[in-house]
Structures are given as structure tokens and as C-alpha cells.
From TrEMBL, chains A, B:
Residues 43-62 bind DNA. Keywords: DNA-binding, Repressor, Transcription, Transcription regulation. The keyword DNA-binding applies. InterPro entries: Homeodomain-like_sf (IPR009057), HTH-type_TetR-like_transc_reg (IPR050109), HTH_TetR (IPR001647), Repressor_TetR_C (IPR004111), Tet_transcr_reg_TetR (IPR003012), Tet_transcr_reg_TetR-rel_C_sf (IPR036271). This is TetR/AcrR family transcriptional regulator C-terminal domain-containing protein. It comes from the Bacteria. The lineage of its organism: Bacteria, Bacillati, Actinomycetota, Actinomycetes, Kitasatosporales.
Length: 230, 230
DNA sequence: ACGATTTTCCGTACGTCGTACGGAAGGAGT
DNA sequence: ACTCCTTCCGTACGACGTACGGAAAATCGT
């Protein structure tokens, strides 16, 4: 039976010999590597190289690649500034919180995807969750309504950030591959003829990401507020 | 210069020789394989084997693995039933539409992730988008508000479906790995002591996925409705 | 009818990946 | 000094995406 490794559990137990690596160091290196190379660019070999360690050394600290992703995700979530000025009303505070979250996800475009595909149980994710819940409790929610409200906010910011970063990256590399882009565009235009509403109401080129994000956020917050009287 | 492959463009042009494969056949096989093996389990080799073809034969029809994902995603989106009874009010119609979407995403748990990480430009995704837009135009929205409203709904259903399927899959395999689960739980409980709001207001075991989904959906729809007067 | 052309099919090969395994090396405790 | 536990990591295996180029087949021009 192999030594059990913690996987997805966050503390580190006793350590009878002083180690060169640590889960924290690995987490930080993973974040840095993900920022530069993206999700597809993170490999155990590259990660180890960046830490001047042998590849297999990582496995003393980490259960596998999935564990690295868990670690990196929680590490990035830690960048969200959680403290809010005393006495700030809940709606304003939540707005700040969500704008912050989007900022962090813009710095780490790989984050929304990872958050959507794993249970976020790291300490920083839990802390963030605590803040969201307590702000909405202050607003007057509890029980399933509370859970649902937290969900809508979380899914919105994750979904928006994911969309934004895929869009931005397509815009970037299409500067080089303008040809293929032209064909795709032409194809879309052809489709548009059979989709009149879409054609009339959407512009593809201008993209006011900031304004658009705030608009959607207002919708969700309005919806939460609308349910308070019930 | 290599023969250009369409990538992400959807029609197929002239065909001077009758082919055994086709983009449609590949798309269907990819969906079936993804359903069984998940995103990580889809490989070009396995996909080809399922079609009784050599691996490299796929590349006559498909630009690469990314293209296969695009194809599979649009193919799955096709399962969403788009027609709505005549005269049904917009809110009810949208609800139907979103419940449908969630159902499809439950049948294809890999779908929400793929949708979040790529621009959905396939014919079925565009058709779905057209329906959403026209329903919200009927509701009285236009311009950036319209775009934002479509966004909130889309992100909500994708985010919820992604959460639901990761949760469900964890619940499944934890039947086998109950030990590790117990440790995770114990860890969570320890964290809960420092997160009082979270501790008081969340239950982990019971999970009324259907009801919870509807609650969140009502929030978003309420929010859209609240913005109509402005 | 038949060669030329075009298109489909796919075997081989290369570089990369995650990680199982087992050994080496280095304190800590006795 | 000896044991034991931990850290470190070289090697190796099977699987992956796909570039390349050749074989075979269908179509077309004549």
C-alpha cells in the first residue's frame, strides 16, 4: 500500500526533515506558469523545472496534476480582497466584491474555468464564500434563497470572466490570422440573414467589457433585491 | 502550403469522392464518447476507433481536437428544443428554454465547460441565441441591456449545470472512496468553525437540485423584469 | 477506354505528457 | 554508529496530438 497523499486537503502535517519544496511554493509557481502558458501549458515537468526540482519531486507534496490545479485555483482566489469598509450597505459591498473577483479573473484567465470544474474547498475560497453569505444574510436572505442568490452571483462572474477571456484571446491571435477570421465573419454574416433578431441587436466589434459586466451585475442584484419582500 | 482545413466553419463544400466519414458522423461519435468517458477520455485515437477508422483519417474532416470539441458542443446544443407554443409569454417561454438547456447539460455533463471555453458559433448555438434574443426583445429589451440579459441567463444555466455535474460526480465516486470523503468533511467542519455564516446556512447532504435551479432562475428573471421600466 | 488528377484513407514516427516504481541520500532519534 | 523515515529524482511505460508522405480509389478530360 502506497503512502497516502492528502489530495485536495489543505493543511500539511508534521515534517521530520526540512524540505526544499512546499505546497505553497508549488501553488505559487503553478499560478505563475498558468498565467504565462495557460491551462494547456502547465505540465508537471515544466512546473518542476520552474522550481529547479526533478519532476517526480513534486509528488511528495502533491497528489497529482488535479491537486496542483486545486492549489493554484485557491491561491489565485486569495488575491481577492475580502475586507469591506464598515457600514457599507450590502449591495454596494457585494458589487465591490464581484468587481474584485472579475479583476482577479482577468489577471488569471484560467481561473474561471478551473472554478467551474471543481468543488472549491480551499481556505481562501471558503473565506470568500463566507463573506458572500454573510453579506446576503445581512440583506435579509436565508435558507435555499440564500444559497440560490450566492449561486447566481458566482455563476455570473465566472461565466462573464470566462467569456471575456476567451473573447480577448481570440481577438489577440486573430491579428495574426486575420484571413481565417474574415472567413469566419463572412460565415457568421451568412447565418445572420436567417437570424434577424441576432443580426439587428448585436455588434461584434465594439466591446465595452466593463460596462457590460456592470449591466449584467445590476440585473442579478436587482433580482436578489426583488425577492427580499417575499 | 498545406490544403487549408475549415476549422470551426460549419458547412462542407463539394465532395468529388464519396467519403465514409463526415463531420456529422464525427460529431455524433464525439458526443457519444464524451458522454461515456468525459472530456479527459476523448482522444483522437479512441474517437477514430469508435468509427472503425484510422486515427489520421479524422484529419480529413476536422482541423484538430479543438475542432472536434466545437463540433460536439454544437451537436449537443442541437438537442435543445427551440420551438415554443404560440403566444406563450416571454418569461414562461424563457423558463422553458432554460429548463430544457439544463436538461441537455445534465445529459451531457461535459457541455457547460466546453461552452464556457469557446465562442459558440455553430448553427444550433446561433439558433438558440436567436430565440433568446427575440424573446427578450419581445419583453422590451434592446441594445446593451439586451446583451447583458442574455448573458446573465446563459452564464447562470452554464454555471449551475457545471456545478451540478461536478457535484454529482463527486457524490458518485465517493461511495467507493468514503474514507477520503470523511476526511474532507472533517476538514470542512473544522473550517466551518471560523466561518459561522457558512456553517449556519448551508447543508451539504440534502441537495434539491431542481428546486435550487428554479430559485436561482427566478432571481435572474426577476432582475431582468425589474430593469424593464427604466 | 484510359491516363491524369483529385481526394480519401491511414501507417509510421516524433515529441510530450502523467505518473508508477524503486533506489539514493540525508537528517533525527536512539 | 545504526536504524528509520523522509525527501529527492532517474528511469520507464503507455497514451496522447498530429506532421508527413505514400497507397488506393473515384472522377474527369480526352
Amino acid at each position: 500500500m502506497p503512502r497516502p497523499r492528502p489530495s485536495t486537503i489543505w493543511f500539511s502535517p508534521e515534517r521530520p526533515r526540512k524540505p526544499r519544496l512546499s505546497r505553497e511554493r508549488i501553488a505559487r509557481a503553478a499560478v505563475a506558469l498558468l498565467d504565462v502558458e495557460g491551462v494547456a501549458g502547465l505540465s508537471m515537468r515544466r512546473l518542476a523545472a520552474r522550481l529547479d526540482a526533478g519532476t517526480m519531486s513534486l509528488y511528495e507534496y502533491v497528489a497529482g496534476k488535479e491537486d496542483v490545479f486545486d492549489l493554484a485555483a485557491d491561491e489565485a482566489v486569495a488575491e481577492i480582497d475580502l475586507d469591506i469598509p464598515d457600514g457599507m450597505p450590502w449591495r454596494e459591498a457585494l458589487t465591490r466584491q464581484l468587481v474584485q473577483s472579475r479583476d482577479v479573473m482577468r489577471r488569471h484567465p484560467w481561473l474561471p474555468t478551473l472554478m467551474a470544474t471543481r468543488p472549491m474547498l480551499g481556505p481562501h475560497a471558503l473565506a470568500r464564500s463566507e463573506v458572500f453569505h454573510s453579506l446576503l444574510v445581512e440583506a435579509g436572505l436565508e435558507g435555499p434563497r440564500l444559497t440560490a442568490a450566492v449561486g447566481t452571483l458566482t455563476y455570473y462572474v465566472q461565466g462573464y470572466a470566462a467569456m471575456e477571456s476567451t473573447w480577448r484571446s481570440r481577438m489577440r491571435d486573430s491579428a495574426a490570422e486575420a484571413e481565417l477570421r474574415r472567413r469566419a465573419r463572412e460565415h457568421l454574416d451568412r447565418q445572420r440573414e436567417s437570424h434577424p433578431t441576432l443580426a439587428r441587436h448585436t455588434r461584434l466589434d465594439d466591446a465595452d467589457f466593463d460596462g457590460s459586466f456592470m449591466l449584467g451585475l445590476e440585473i442579478v442584484l436587482d433580482g436578489i433585491e426583488a425577492g427580499l419582500g417575499t
